[in-house]
Design brief:
By secondary structure, the protein is an alpha/beta fold. Helix content is about 30%, strand content about 30%. The chain has 5 helices and 10 strands; from the N terminus they run ββββββαβαβαβαβα. α2 (about 85-95) runs parallel beside α3 (about 115-125) and α3 packs parallel to α4. It is globular, with a radius of gyration of 16 Å.
Length: about 170
């Protein structure tokens, strides 16, 4: 089965009716000028490479398909990425000393909801850029997420262009 998104392709590999893996075709690393980026590099306003800072990200999502998809998209932009399946797993990983520049949190999480997960991460003193990656559009729910400490809402699907924009913003901060 091949799924075509605007910027990339995803092929689900099936055997006897079961998904056994996936293969992605992603665009090369991009910036706002459409110039390719080398892995681990960020760009200045004019698109020139200025550093080899390596960004890191944590994807917090219980859906294995989304974990793989978002990890591949982040890594296509040179972001070293890990993922966990719940808010509790995220808190445990962060408490162990792991550090991330970006934490992408799904709208639906098992064991501990998105708002409580975000609140507890912020209570640990973690200042990572926190993204709510969601298709939900309920204003009251968004406000609760923002109040808990999420920095930005990203409408699904997460794309290489959105990640490039966030990395550029973080580089310029």
């Amino acid at each position: 089965m091949v799924i075509k998104f605007e910027e990339f392709f995803l092929q689900i590999i099936r055997c006897k009716g079961k998904s056994i893996g996936c293969m992605m075709e992603l665009p090369s690393k991009i910036n706002n000028n459409g110039k390719p980026l080398k892995q681990g590099f960020s760009c200045s306003r004019n698109g020139d490479l200025i550093t080899n800072r390596k960004f890191t990200a944590l994807v917090v999502d219980s859906d294995p398909f989304i974990q793989i998809l978002e990890k591949a998209i982040l890594e296509s932009q040179g972001v070293e990425t890990q993922y966990v399946g719940s808010g509790i797993d995220a808190l445990d990983l962060l408490a162990s000393g792991a550090n991330f520049d970006i934490i992408a949190i799904a709208w639906v999480l098992p064991k501990m909801n998105r708002v409580e997960t975000t609140r507890r991460i912020r209570a640990m003193g973690i200042r990572s850029k926190m993204l709510a990656v969601t298709a939900c559009d309920i204003e009251r729910e968004k406000q609760a997420f923002l109040d808990a400490g999420v920095d930005e809402f990203i409408e699904k699907p997460l794309t290489p262009e959105k990640i490039a924009s966030i990395m550029k913003e973080m580089q310029n901060a």
